[in-house]
Amino acid sequence: MNEEHEFNIRQIQRALRIFHKNGEDIPIVFEDGIFGEETERAVLAFQKQNNLPENGIVDYETWVLLMESANEYIRKNAEPFPIFPYVNDEESSVLPEEEGKAIWFLQAMLIAIGEKYSGTDGVELNGKNDEATRNAIKYIHKCEEGESCDGALTQKTWNSVARLFNAI
Question: Residue 20's closest CA among 4, 51, 43?
């Protein structure tokens, strides 16, 4: 390590592990916080791949490229962030033929469900609790709750659709 710069060894090792795990020709490094021989070998391999001076020292130039490259790998390969749409009480009840923000989410879920199961045919993304949307709500509600409903979006029907959506 270069004595002028005190970089976090665990961060260096974590970045090097990212390259190794993603198929780069970087030796495996354990994140132990010790800048030993295996870390130095991995740094040398990283420097060689990136046309940096091959000295095994994590100087400022090596540090910056190591961190930027590791962050780029993370951004490119990260799992998509899940969303958890929530509709408050004022928006959670949408009567037939009404429009509401919750209907947009509901229709998107119904369309996705329809790709795997029948019973939600004809639902379009339009933000309106139209006939096709109501029929799909009724169908799912009947299947899950064993009782009929009028096709209004209520918290109960939202939960039925959301459970089915999460299951697929």
Answer: 43
Q: Which residues form the domain of 18?
A: 9-77
Number of domains making up the chain: 2
Q: Is the pLDDT of residue 2 over 80?
A: no
pLDDT tens figures, 133-142:
999 988 888 8
- pLDDT at position 3, please? 43
- What does the alpha-carbon distance between residue 70 and residue 7 come to, in Å, rounded to a whole number? 15
**Token couple for 41:** 């070998």
Q: Cα separations (Å) of 55 from 28, 41, 44, 111, 124?
A: 18, 10, 6, 57, 61
Virtual CA dihedral for 38, 44, 49, 52, nearest 10 degrees?
150
Q: What percent of the chain has pLDDT over 70?
A: 92
Same domain, 62 and 116: no
Q: What is the pLDDT of residues 72-90, one digit of tens each?
A: 988 888 777 777 776 655 5
Instruction: Please state, as a whole number, how many other Cβ atoms lie within 10 Å of the Cβ of residue 15.
Output: 25
* Assigned domain for 84 exists: no
